[in-house]
Amino acid sequence: MDTARVYVEAQDRLLEIAGDIGEDGGAVPVPALPGWTIKDTYAHLAGVSADVLSGATPADIGDDQWTARHVSERADRRLAQIRAEWAGNAAAMKDHLGARSGLGSALTAVDAWHHEQDIRGALRFPGGRRDAAEVTDVVVAGLSGGWPEDLPAVRIECIDAEARWTVGPGRPGVRLRARVFDVARLLIGRRSRAQALALPWEGPVGTVLEYLHVFPMPTVGLVE
């Protein structure tokens, strides 16, 4: 993945959205992130950039205490202030991510891309389809690394992009043909169980579904 490009372009789009929606828009709840508003989500993104540049990122970037700190430290700031902080780190983040090719840097870009979709979904804006395949490459590698040996592999083919993956080692016993954006959102954990099961699977998907997403599935369906 071109980590710096994916991150920078997601950030540019999100900074534009933040500038357009104003403080009232920042108060909108984010269904993909229960308990968080749009402002909270931007606080997390700004916090990630600050920690990356200071070398304060934990081994587990999904750590709840770490992400909660980003929000609590910026709770008394306005969305415009949080936006300005994140924008102020943009050039340094581009240089930092461009100089590194490790998993941690890639996950920083994946995080920004998926939170863009979370925010778009909260605002009922169409999701940003670009780079869905690239961020999914990273997620598939992570899921495959922890795939249980006694489960069949999952073969995924995209119907709207030249992208395909096999999650897990060995011979595929479950198959899915779907849009690349839906695959990306499914694998990160942004589709409910009902939404996931409604996709056109072949094979015993029920045996593998709980291992086929990074974060817990939402209890309600998400629009983006």
Question: Rg to the nearest angstrom?
Answer: 17 Å
Largest sheet, in brief, is: 4 strands, mixed
Which band does the percent of strand residues land in?
5-15%
Order of helices and strands: HHHHHHHEEEHHE
Number of strands: 4
Rounded mean pLDDT is 95
| SS field, number of helical segments | 9
Structural class: alpha+beta
Distance from N terminus to C terminus (CA atoms, Å) equals 22 Å
Strand order of the largest sheet: 2-1-3-4
Report the oligomer. Answer: single chain
Silhouette: globular
- Uncertain segments: none
Assign a percent range to the helix content.
40-55%
Describe the protein's architecture and organization:
The protein has helices at 3-26, 38-54, 64-73, 79-88, 90-98, 103-123, 132-145, 180-188, 193-197, and strands at residues 153-158, 164-167, 172-178, 201-202. By secondary structure, it is of the alpha+beta class. It has a 4-stranded mixed sheet. A hairpin with a 5-residue loop joins β1 and β2. The longest helix has 24 residues, at 3-26. It is globular, with a radius of gyration of 17 Å. The two termini are 22 Å apart. The mean pLDDT is 95.
